[in-house]
Amino acid sequence: MTLPLPTGRLAERPFDPPAELRERGPLSRMSYPDGHEGWLVTSHTLVREVLADPRFSVRPELRHLPIPGALGSNQPPPPGMFSGMDAPEHTRYRRLLTGQFTVRRMRLLTERIQGITAEHLDAMEQVGPTADLVTALAQPIPAQVICELLGVPYAARARFQGHALDLFRLDATPEEMATAYAAVHGFMAELVQDKRANPTDDLLSGLTSSDLTDEELVNIGFTLLGAGLDTTANMLALGTFALLSHPGQLALLRKDPGIVDRAVEELLRYLSIIPFTVRTALEDLRLDGEQIKAGETVTVSVPAANRDAAHFTDPDTLNLLRSTAGHVAFGHGVHQCLGQQLARVELQVALPALVARFPTLRLAVPAEDIAMRTDTLIYGVHSLPVTWEV
Ligand code: HEM
Fold first, then answer.
1. I need a labelling partner for 318 at 20 to 30 A (CA). Which of 47, 182, 204, 327 fits?
2. pLDDT at residue 340 above 90?
3. Number of folded domains in the chain?
4. What atom in ligand 1 is closest to the CA of residue 279?
5. What's the gap in Å between 182 CA and the centre of ligand 1?
């Protein structure tokens, strides 16, 4: 009998992926909620092999999703929604966008991230000595950074952020989701018009000088928002939870903030907040001695690959000083995360600033009372109550 994707995590080990993933072996048959019989890949080597192989497509209209009710359309991507396109369409967009992440823009964004982080830490300190780290810090930092990237004018930020965060509310009804989607879409369309008329020094304005249409620009804005907001927010909150749960490791970071780059890579590896991505075979092919047929979907387990003992020594231990070379928390191959440098800077700035500002920071409730987001496409916490001494 073929089994579905393992999703059950142990309450007492909230940072560990489902143990059953390891029992499945590197490549196994897997059943999908729509009745499809596809595959599951868990080893580091095979995960990278699948993600680097152009015979596997990312197109949503070909795929079967591995969890019931998984968000995301099964329609062909509209113009500009490049994360759902294969080469050569994907390559064209990716080139245009990569060209926008210039050294200068990244430097300016880093300065803004430092400023935004300090503002939110000040606000936390003023209302403390308790806070929900998710709403106080983890959500607003990436939301403001996306505003900087897209050049959302200051006066419109509150409206934009409200709509954008609504898109990721986990308790939203389909009607509420549709309203939020329409609101963000309308906002983005207005923004594109504004950037065409009055270009400023941001990524969206930068793209208006290319041959991209309004529709493409709107969907690119959407893609960046969809990919960059909830991911970074969850990584900030879950990363904080992991550090507070590993006092020895937290002490290392406090003592020597110079280790932050390595520490962030290790948190990305250890937490692997994207539980899976999927690809569909465009032709019959052989993988690890098995015959994969055209049209079969392969679910790629990011957490399993990042905890593969064949690649990482003692993979279930959080060790901020280890080498994490080759981790796949940002994916691999041509679809590897476009915003990874930005996400890294957000984490590298915010986590050390948080622990430096609040030397006595700790969870305000027992760790087992923290509600985990197990039912979503991005792993994390619903809220993270923290407290400190004043
Ligand atoms: C810690 C935070 C983040 C994590 C863990 C993360 C993870 C990932 C992963 C695993 C993929 C590959 C998906 C696949 O192969 O199917 C991806 C793609 C992508 N990410 Fe991120 N991401 C993060 C932050 C961001 C940010 C801040 C942005 C933008 C500002 C962003 C934009 C994108 C885009 C546009 C893609 C699609 C790239 C393509 O298809 O060419 N991500 N991300």
1. 47
2. yes
3. 1
4. 16
5. 23
d(CA 48, CA 326): 9
Q: What are phi and psi of 288, to 5 degrees?
A: 50, 40
Length of the chain: 390
Range of the domain at 367: 20-67+236-387
Statement: residue 103 has pLDDT above 80: yes
Q: Is the pTM of this model over 0.90?
A: yes
Please determine, for residue 381, whether its predicted confidence score (pLDDT) is greater than 80.
Answer: yes
Q: Does residue 381 belong to any structural domain of this protein? A: yes
Percent of the chain clearing pLDDT 70 (strictly above): 98
pLDDT at 70 over 70: no
Give the nearest ligand 1 atom to 347 CA: 1
Residue with tokens 């930005």: 342
Q: Is 278 in the pocket of ligand 1 (CB under 6 A)?
A: no
- Say if 309 falls within a structural domain: yes
| pLDDT attached to residue 75 | 87
Q: Is the CB of 329 under 6 A from ligand 1?
A: yes
- Asked if the model's pLDDT at residue 324 lies above 80, the reply is yes
CB contact at 8 A, 266 and 324? yes
- Confirm whether 211 is domain-assigned: no
Q: What sections of the chain are H helices per DSSP?
A: 20-23, 44-52, 89-98, 103-127, 133, 140-150, 157-167, 174-197, 203-208, 214-228, 230-245, 247-255, 260-271, 302-306, 340-357
Q: What is the mean pLDDT of residues 200-228?
A: 92
Asked whether the predicted pLDDT for residue 178 surpasses 90, the reply is no
Rounded CA separation 11/236 (Å) = 20
Q: Rounded to the nearest whole angstrom, what is the distance from the C-alpha of residue 336 to the centroid of ligand 1?
A: 7
- Closest ligand 1 atom to 149 CA: 30
Pair of tokens at residue 341: 């440098």
Tokens of 100: 């926008």
Question: Is the distance from the beta carbon of residue 249 to the nearest atom of ligand 1 less than 6 Å?
Answer: no
Question: Across the chain, what does the average pLDDT equal?
Answer: 93
CATH number at residue 243: 1.10.630.10
Q: Please, are residues 71 and 377 in contact by the beta-carbon 8 Å criterion?
A: yes
